[in-house]
Amino acid sequence: MHKLIEIAKLFLRLGFTAFGGPAAHISLMHDETVKRRKWLDDQQFLDLIGATNLIPGPNSTEMAIHIGFLRAGWRGLIVGGLCFIVPAMLIVLVLAWGYVRFGSLPEAKWLLYGVKPVVIAVIMQALWSLGRKAVKGPLMAAAALIIIVLYFLGINEIALLFGGGLAVMTVMNLHRLRKQSLSLFIVPIGSVPLFSQIAASFSLTKMFLIFLKIGAVLYGSGYVLLAFLRADFVVKLGWLTDQQLVDAIAIGQITPGPLFTTATFIGYVLGGIPGALLATLGIFLPSFIFVAISNPFIPRMRKSPWFGSLLDGVNAASLGLMAAVTWQLGRSSLIDILSIGIAIVSFILLVRFKINATWLILAGALLGLLKLISG
Fold it and tell me: Of 284, 309, 341, which one is at a domain's C-terminal end?
């Protein structure tokens, strides 16, 4: 019970304060579970990152579920995931109510102005710490750098993750390839069409099944989520307008916790409280199932020369993608002397004085508010 309470307290706090998207969330989890609480070491944490990248669904939520499972078994799996999701869901519910009631989004630029530079510092700290463990030699360093270059050339991030992992696995096991022939059996994972015919009339059941499908097959960033949501809710069904969809994504971005709580917003707009709850359940349920199935195999993968090297390659590719995303976020977040100063001071406080990242995020939000007041 003590471990469950620890898990609940940590992920409830992160659910209310973890701004900045999956890279930032994972960096905060690293700070809390590896640096502060010593629940995991760097290699275990890296392997969890690699495992979450190999399955569909929201990466940071799946990290919370993995960590809960490792810390306290099946009950920890459920508590970790729910405590990370529910705070964000409640915040989004309030904003969705205001949106439906008043027809507009709240002004949040002041909040993001102060928070984003802190998020950049948090991610940089995690990249530095995890990079020293993941980049085990010239091969891993080359893989990470190539991934960064290819990302900026517009190559699909899922192709980069799997391609990087397979490339590293092949290079590291060339001597085995020379000794034996290798047969690869690839089992395609397809999705059975959930709808034989889609009607224009709204249905809670239909909406739930759409979000269940998205949660079960979606790889990639929030931009990929946007494409899935638009295809189903705007183009096929006509339940949302493009503007409503953009507003839903914006709510997911300006609130803490997982971006997938965009589903909560859409569910409320379409079907009130029942719609919000069903949409949230639908999009997150597959993650709990995938983590429960995959988690026991991670230690076995690490022991296998083939899968261990695949995991190493995916880890290096993941950090390369995190670095590329950090560069993009930095360009849009560090826009003046004050924001650059916030990022530098935050990084120093994190690395030198081990200040808890949550307090720095709250301080960043306060600085953003002061800037708004001062004009």
Answer: 284
Distance in angstroms (rounded) separating the CA atoms of residues 147 and 320: 6
pLDDT at 333 over 50: yes
Percent of the chain with pLDDT over 90: 31
**Token output for 51:** 């495992």
Q: What is the mean pLDDT of the chain?
A: 82
- Domain membership of residue 315 (yes or no) is yes
CB 289 within 8 A of CB 87: no
**Neighbour count for residue 161 (Cβ, 10 Å):** 23
Beta strands, E only, 226-307: none
Q: Among all chains, which residue has been given the structure tokens 């002041």?
A: 110
Helix pair angle (242-254, 222-229), 10° resolution: 150
* Alpha carbons 330 and 375: distance in angstroms, whole number: 23
Closest to 206 in 3D by CA, of 236, 179, 177? 236
Q: Which of 236, 252, 284 corresponds to the end of one domain?
A: 284
Write the CA distances from 117 to 93, 235, 333, integer angstroms. 27, 36, 6
| DSSP-derived 3-state class of residue 297 | helix
Check whether residue 120 and residue 175 sit in a common domain: yes
DSSP class of residue 106 equals: P
Query: Could you give the CA distance from residue 148 to residue 295 in angstroms, rounded to a whole number?
Result: 28
Whether 305 and 279 share a structural domain: no
Which residue range(s) make up the domain with 370? 2-181+292-374
| pLDDT score of 179 more than 70 | no
DSSP, residue by residue, 139-180? HHHHHHHHHHHHHHTT--HHHHHHHHHHHHHHHHTHHHHHHS
Query: Using CA atoms, how far apart are residues 374 and 348, in angstroms rounded to an integer?
Result: 26
Instruction: Report the pLDDT value the prediction gives residue 6, as an integer from 0 to 100.
Output: 94
pTM of the model: 0.68
**Cα gap 74→98, rounded to integer Å:** 36
Q: 18 with 156, same domain?
A: yes
Q: Quick one: 59 and 177 in the same domain?
A: yes
Nearest to 357 by CA among 366, 344, 368, 346: 346
